[in-house]
Write a structure and sequence with these properties.
Layout: H1 2-19, E1 37-38, E2 45-46, E3 64-74, E4 79-84, E5 98-111, E6 114-115, E7 126-132, E8 158-164, H2 165-171, E9 174-182, E10 187-194, E11 197-198, E12 203-206, E13 212-215, E14 218-219, E15 230-236, E16 245-250, H3 253-274, E17 276-284, E18 289-295, E19 329-334, E20 348-358, E21 365-373, E22 386-391
Length: 409
């Protein structure tokens, strides 16, 4: 009897959960300039986009997808502009207008199938992004086009993820299969395949005399393109005059993997020089212990380097006799929302890593958290503040002056 009662309760809970209205609007509700409603008890209630909460990672599926071409970059502040792709929901007068956005501190960028920095992505690259509404207190002027028009996407100014076509298709286990190549008209017909099955209709892409062709461990040319090849490519001018122009094309798995491996090493070098980004989750002022949760969008192998040992990595002895000179160590530098630090050579404090643990992975989180016993707490070591962490084995050198925020206050 208890079993039957329990099954009834479980079934009822399942039905209630299935009928529960969504807590926020999603792309499934239609174009951004059409206001959806959710059905509740009584009158219909407008459904709003999820608004980010400071110091918290966003829920899965709460972002708005925008695709477009990269037309402007400020890599130091992690800001950029996309010319938004045309789609059927837009009026003609609102085609090709820009959205101006900045990367969230925990926002990730992918290029050629590996984590990247904005400086790695060439202007003109077609990108796919996930965005959130601007902070309600953000009064930065929005970019406008002719006749002071703005794209309907203009209010989505905080970017959670940005990736090129190559990265998107790798992540979704997709490849383009070449159906036909016509070098007389500079056209390439290809069909997208996912896990070996055709996905959608063939599309007609433009080739350029400057299209870069990668084959094996080197370069090919347009003559290397053949029907039947399973390829990846990056695009520009998407939706302007058709599906887009191919800027780069990778003809085989070897060339795919080589491109990704090169970008991955570039990312690793960039991160080792600037520190692992994360935010302070908790601080024990009395014990001088800082808990850091690291952001996602970082090569997981870099977290393996947290356990490296260096007896005296900072050039000075540990200040407390109870500290273990043979334990993993590291230093913390205060950072801004753009992940820029002040003067990381001199403005770091740290000590022994007391704990390295896995925590539940959330959107924007790496699922890696550490506790560091510091010799001194800086003002920036406060909950929800952004920091960068340098494991003991990472050599910390002065960054180019433009990358240091010191002196700009």
């Amino acid at each position: 009897m208890r079993l039957i009662f329990g099954l009834v309760l479980a079934a009822a809970a399942t039905v209630l959960h299935a009928e529960a209205p969504p807590k926020f609007r999603t792309d499934a509700d239609g174009p951004v300039d059409v206001k959806p409603v959710k059905k509740g008890e009584g009158d219909a209630v407008p459904l709003d986009w999820f608004q980010l909460v400071e110091g918290e990672f966003p829920p899965e599926g709460s972002a708005h997808a925008i695709s477009g071409e990269l037309i402007k970059v400020d890599h130091l502040e992690r800001r950029f502009q996309l010319r938004v792709d045309r789609n059927d929901s837009q009026q003609r007068g609102f085609w090709d207008l820009p959205v101006d956005a900045g990367m969230l501190p925990y926002g990730s960028i992918y290029y050629l199938g590996a984590p990247a920095d904005l400086r790695d992505v060439p202007l003109g690259t077609h990108l796919h992004g996930l965005f959130y509404l601007a902070d309600p207190n953000d009064d930065t002027p929005l970019p406008v086009g002719p006749n002071n028009r703005q794209t309907p996407e203009a209010a989505f100014r905080r970017c959670f993820r940005l990736e090129d076509d190559f990265s998107l298709h790798v992540r979704q286990q997709q490849r383009w299969k070449i159906d036909k190549v016509d070098l007389a008209t500079m056209k390439l017909t290809a069909t997208l395949h996912e896990k070996g099955e055709a996905k959608g209709e063939p599309k007609l892409f433009d080739l350029l005399t400057s299209t870069r062709v990668y084959e094996g461990g080197g370069f090919g040319d347009l003559q290397s393109l053949k029907a039947g090849q399973s390829v990846l490519f990056n695009l520009t001018w998407v939706t302007l005059y058709g599906p887009g122009r191919i800027t780069d094309i990778w003809l085989d798995e070897s060339s795919h993997q080589l491109a990704t491996a090169h970008q991955l090493e570039r990312h690793r070098n960039h991160t080792r020089e600037r520190g692992l980004p994360g935010w302070v989750t908790a601080v024990d002022d009395e014990a001088q212990i800082v808990t850091i949760t690291f952001f996602g969008g970082v090569d997981p192998k870099l977290f393996d380097e947290l356990t490296g040992i260096d007896d005296e990595p900072f050039g000075w002895p540990l200040s407390k006799p109870e500290d273990d000179p043979k334990a993993p160590k590291g230093t913390i530098a205060v950072a801004l929302a753009s992940l820029m630090t002040y003067d990381p050579v001199n403005d770091r404090k740290g000590g022994n890593i007391l704990d390295i643990k896995k925590i539940p992975v959330e959107p924007g989180s790496s699922g890696v958290q550490i506790k560091v016993k510091c010799d001194m707490l800086l003002e920036g070591f406060r909950p929800r503040r952004i920091v960068r962490f340098f494991p003991a084995t990472w050599k910390v050198e002065a960054l180019p002056r433009e990358e240091q925020f010191f002196g700009r206050e």
